[in-house]
Structure formats: C-alpha cells, structure tokens
Amino acid sequence: MARQLEEQIVARFPVGKRLRVLDVGMGRGAQALRLARAGHQVTGVEQDAASIAAVREAFAGEPEGIRERMRIIEGQAGDTGVHFLPGSFDVVLCHGVLMDDVEEPDALLAGVARMLAPGGMLSLLVRNGDAAAMRAGLSGDWAGALAAFCPPTASYGLKRLTSTLAGIGAPLHTWYGVRVFTDTAADDSVPPDDLDAVLAVEDRAGRTDPYRGVAALLHLCGVRG
C-alpha cells in the first residue's frame, strides 16, 4: 500500500512540494512516519492511547527536523471538523478506520473529504466487501465462508465506494487491491526469506484484474475537484 500511495503522490503533486497531510486514525503511525521522512507536514488523529504512545516513541528516535514535521491530536476520526477548517490538507489518509463497526460511515467519509483542498487526494483503505468469503474459504472455514456471503449492510464493495466517493466530492481516480495472496498469513508470522519476491507479486496483483478484485482490502484514491 505504501508503494501505491507514493505512486499517486508522485503523479499528482510537483516534485519537492511539501504537502500538508492528515492521517485520520493513524494507528501506530507507519505511513505518517514515512511521509514525514519524505519532507511533508503530517498531522495524525488517533484516539487509542497505546497507539499514540507507540507513535511518539517511533518519532523520538528521528532527527529534530522530522519530529518538527509531525503533530498528533488525540481524538476520534469523526471529529475532523472540530479540529480543522475545510480544505486544510493536500492529502488525507483514512486507512483501516472503516474496518470496525462505525456508526454512519458515509457521514464520517464526507467529513474527512471536506478536509481536502481543491485537487487534494483522499487515500482510503477498507475491507473488500466484494470478497468477504475469501479468507475463510482459503483457510478451510466453510461455515465462516458461507456466513460471509451475506455481509453486513455497512460493508463496502467497489461499486458502493465509487458512488460514495462521487457523492462526497472526491470522485474515484484509481484503485488497488491489497493482500491478494497473503491475507491468510498469521499476524505474528515471521517474514519469509523471499520477502522482496512476495511484495513484488502482491504489488503486481494489486493493480491487475481480476486479482485485485478479490483482494482482502481495497485501496482507493479519490481526488477533490
């Protein structure tokens, strides 16, 4: 996903431009740190105290110039309008926020999109509602796979997301699949010796039909007109 995000930023913005980035639900700050290292001004919003502590610890070991480019706000993803004026950011990340049980997800996305300046980009990562049965089926959990064929009404597939992004003023520009072949790997798995090859295959599959359509996650990039 980091490769995909970098690809879109490089294609959309002038080389060397210091972007204003908002990372909504920043988690442990992997993307925020990478973008701050690249020279961008990054603001992260996170409500989990343990995640915030992890981000602060990660940034503590960085040079002062990088630390100065990072700001952390403790708050919920739906409260962006409380903290920022509309149009304040060139890039907004909303990664994994809608994977949990979120009330009024479309309203949350609309609030996040309002933070985009004209021409700004929204990077959205969600579970792929069109392929909800894949992980359980590939793991041999047949009961779970059958249940997944009837996903909750809040689940997002490509068609719904395309409509939602258009409705909130950030129409879909491009999309990728994430974790096409590796979704069944345990969270605590030791990285394989051929990790570069794995990443190369995932990167290729995530941008190639029909593989990206059955990925565990969808990464969509919408652009504010």
TrEMBL record:
InterPro entries, per database record: Methyltransf_11, SAM-dependent_MTases_sf
Location of the Methyltransferase type domain: 22-123
UniProt keyword list: Methyltransferase, S-adenosyl-L-methionine, Transferase
Keyword Transferase in record: yes
Any Gene Ontology biological process: methylation
Gene3D superfamilies tied to this protein: Vaccinia Virus protein VP39
Pfam families in alphabetical order: Methyltransf_11 (PF08241)
PANTHER family xrefs: METHYLTRANSFERASE, UBIQUINONE BIOSYNTHESIS O-METHYLTRANSFERASE, MITOCHONDRIAL
UniProt-recorded name of the protein: Methyltransferase domain-containing protein
